[in-house]
Design goal:
Helix content: 25-40%
Largest sheet: 5 strands, antiparallel
Number of strands: 7
Radius of gyration: 18 Å
Number of domains: 1
Oligomer: single chain
Amino acid sequence: MKNIFFILLLINTLFINAQESIPTLKETPVKLAELDRTAIYPGCSGDNNNELNTCLSAKMRKLVSLNFNISMVNTIGLSEGRKKIDIFFIIDEKGFVTNVEVKAPHPKLKEEAIRITKLIPKLEPGKLRGKTVKVSYSLPIVFVVLEQEEVIETKKMRKMRLKRERKQKKELRKQNKK
């Protein structure tokens, strides 16, 4: 029986993409570097965009690592090797994640990536020339699938899995009450 060992890596957690090279204040998402003030993740603070971006990146990494359903990877039959999921989205003028697009090596991974983006909380939107603007983000998730005889679940992995399962049950209960 084939077992899969999964390692989650976030390489260069956030890549920022712009649709055009010259930002406008209307419909075109702008590059992070062009913003007067970057989008701010809840709980982040700093004196400059570099500090805010570092915090945003760390919060995104934590969100993915705590919520990505690692056990699902064992069930979809991925071949051994490096795998990458590219998530593209826009933080709109109100701070919400919109226009999510995903490139993944398996449909289940695409579904999981979309589920993860729905967990991103409302952000404080980015500003350019004193006005809130759309900002385009790219979030790559890179992992390695290894074939092994036995998968050993570490204490940390077990703790994260149990926490994620409790959270999912809680969310289901909330949805059922609606």
